[in-house]
Design goal:
The complex is a heterodimer of chains A (237) and B (261). Chain A contains 13 helices and no strands. By secondary structure, chain A is mainly alpha-helical. The longest helix of chain A is centred in the N-terminal third of the chain and has 21 residues. With 261 residues, chain B is an all-alpha fold. In chain B, α3 packs antiparallel against α5. Classes of the chains: A mainly alpha (237), B mainly alpha (261). Chains A and B meet through α1, α2, α4 and α7 of A and α3, α7 and α8 of B.
């Protein structure tokens, strides 16, 4: 009887200790300031506890599934996806490497809710945490282009988009198609710019085509570069 | 020396056969059903993140089912040995109690290893079917799971030997497993600037007593290390895990030698 009682007390003490440790998340954040996975206080408690037990990546996947269900629910669109940002914040705080979430949620803010500020904010957060992921740079370029150029026709926006694509092309694993897009951006800029800037952008385009022709990442790029170089009389035979 | 090794291997082999005879490996069937069913669900529920969701869920389930295997196999074999008194037959032979326990440890570890490797192979097969890319970090994550389970075998065995009954021992083991995943928070409390010295001291003592499963958690590295393996960290974790399991085994051996059967 006495031994059983001691065992029960010890078990209860261990259980309380476990609960106390789950609650010590603030200290954890202070110990690991550079650790990318961070739980937020608005996260559901079960997700919090499971995440703390070392299953952070799996919890992030389940948070994503929850977001997908939320987006797909017709009731959510009626409320203009009121909870979407908080849910996404939970996810990207827990797993900032979850790149797909930045792309798709920012797309909803940009095209469905017309909230370009939030869309760009999410993309910028993604770029900060994943500087080597070219798709985010491309999305940013597309959003800026969509936001401003069609409306104000400001060349600076088109230039800024071209610079983003330039960055994306500089990153590993970018698709070869992106190089052709960049060439077309340079050409468009040279057509629309003032006489002085025209030379600058044309120069950039020619250097880019020459590089694509010399070191093509795929055969289609070489053909694209060759066609443009011929068109401008820079390649004769 | 050679005779002792033969006895040790005989006990280990017998424990493994006992586990297979009791269909402990049936846990695998549940895992397989959960994983195969889950992989189809994941395709539907996590668009854009199907690949990582499959691997993350698979690895998490492998560890949880692995721990279930540890507890089940130790509970069933210990029940037959202690409650049904089968151990008396073994101990009438020239086998010391400590040797018996060490053999049992090896036998359970073998069961858990085979079980875990089969689960991981199934996960890889599902990844192959779904055309999911698996990088080198998967090996580190798998090794981390095995180390977690070996340490779990160590302390579960200790609790089952030292407790008054098997149920209490099992409950202690489950709580220890949970707390083992939270010891990083304890470390954080120790390093906290506002923590009182007495609390720091007590927490430090607890930190060294409790297992630190975060040391074996290479699952999160899957997306951080871009497929590379940090060998010194892996070596350090392996040394820590094996040493912790060995210490548990030594204490269990001491408790078992004093236990009234």
């Amino acid at each position: 009887m006495k031994k059983t009682l001691i065992s029960l007390i010890a078990l209860a003490a261990l259980a309380l200790f476990a609960l106390y440790l789950v609650r010590a998340d603030k200290e954890y954040g202070a110990l690991h300031p550079n650790y990318p996975f961070k739980e937020t206080s608005s996260m559901p408690y079960y997700a919090h506890a499971f995440s703390f037990m070392g299953f952070r990546a799996a919890v992030a996947d389940f948070l994503w599934m929850d977001i997908v269900q939320y987006i797909g629910d017709p009731e959510s669109s009626k409320t203009k996806y009121k909870e979407l940002y908080a849910k996404t914040d939970n996810l990207i705080s827990l797993d900032p490497k979850f790149t797909y979430s930045y792309l798709s949620v920012s797309g909803i803010y940009m095209f469905e809710l017309k909230d370009s500020e939030r869309a760009l904010g999410l993309i910028d957060r993604g770029i900060e945490k994943n500087p080597d992921y070219w798709v985010l740079q491309l999305y940013r370029a597309a959003y800026v282009y969509q936001m401003n150029f069609n409306v104000s026709n400001k060349l600076s926006d088109l230039e800024s988009a071209a610079l983003r694509i330039e960055k994306a092309v500089g990153l590993k694993e970018h698709p070869p198609m992106l190089e052709r897009t960049l060439g077309s951006f340079y050409l468009k800029l040279s057509e629309l710019s003032s006489q002085e800037r025209k030379k600058y952008w044309m120069g950039k385009a020619i250097r880019h085509w020459a590089k694509m022709y010399e070191f093509p990442s795929e055969e289609l790029n070489r053909k694209y570069a060759e066609d443009h170089l011929r068109k401008f009389g820079l390649l004769n035979n | 020396m050679r005779a002792s090794a033969e006895k040790l291997l005989a006990v280990a082999g017998n424990t493994f056969k006992e586990c297979v005879r009791h269909r402990i490996l049936n846990v695998l069937l549940i895992f397989a059903a959960a994983m195969i069913g889950g992989s189809f669900l994941i395709r539907e529920l996590a668009p854009g993140a199907e690949d990582r969701a499959l691997i993350d869920t698979g690895l998490a389930l492998t560890e949880l089912f692995g721990f279930l295997t540890v507890v089940l196999s130790l509970f069933i074999t210990s029940y037959e040995e202690f409650e049904m008194r089968n151990i008396w037959i073994t101990l009438t032979k020239p086998v010391s109690r400590r040797l018996f326990l060490a053999g049992k440890f090896l036998g359970i570890c073998l069961t858990v290893t085979i079980n875990t490797l089969l689960m991981l192979l199934l996960l890889l097969a599902l990844a192959g079917i779904n055309l999911t890319t698996v990088n080198l970090s998967f090996i580190a994550a798998s090794l981390g799971i095995l180390l977690t389970l070996y340490v779990s075998v160590g302390f579960t065995m200790l609790f089952m030997v030292a407790s008054t009954n098997l149920t209490t021992g099992t409950l202690f083991a489950v709580l220890f497993y949970l707390i083992g995943h939270l010891t990083q928070n304890l470390k954080a409390i120790i390093s906290g600037q506002k923590t009182a010295e007495a609390v720091k001291f007590t927490a430090t003592v607890f930190y060294y007593i409790l297992p630190d499963f975060a040391a074996f958690n290479f699952r999160e590295q899957l997306y951080l290390s871009a497929g590379s393996i940090h060998y010194p960290l892996l070596f350090k974790a392996s040394a820590y895990g094996l040493l912790y399991a060995l210490i548990c085994l030594l204490i269990a051996g001491f408790a078992f030698s004093k236990k009234e059967l």
